[in-house]
Amino acid sequence: MDDVIVRREFDWSETPPSIAIVTAIADIENVDPIDLPTTAGTTLYSYVDPGALDALVDGERVAVSFSMAEYRIRIDGAELTVAAE
C-alpha cells in the first residue's frame, strides 16, 4: 500500500469492519465518527455497502480492498490498514 496511516488488528465478531473503518478514518481526520460525513464530505455507504462488507468479513481468510475518498482501505484477515492514496 501507499503511505500507511493506520494499521490495526480486530476481532470482527466484536467490532464490525464497517465500524472499524469509519472509526479509523475519523481518528486520522481527528473528528468524532458521527461528524465524518461532514468533514470528509462522504460516507462509507457511498463506496461500499456496510452490511455486505460486515457479512463478507466474518473470518480470518478474507481479503478486501477499496478506495474511500483519499484513502485506500484493506482488510486482510484480522488486520485493517488505511493508507493515503
From TrEMBL:
Domain Halobacterial output: 14-78
InterPro entries in the cross-refs: HalOD1 (IPR040624)
Pfam family membership, one: HalOD1
Record's protein name: Halobacterial output domain-containing protein
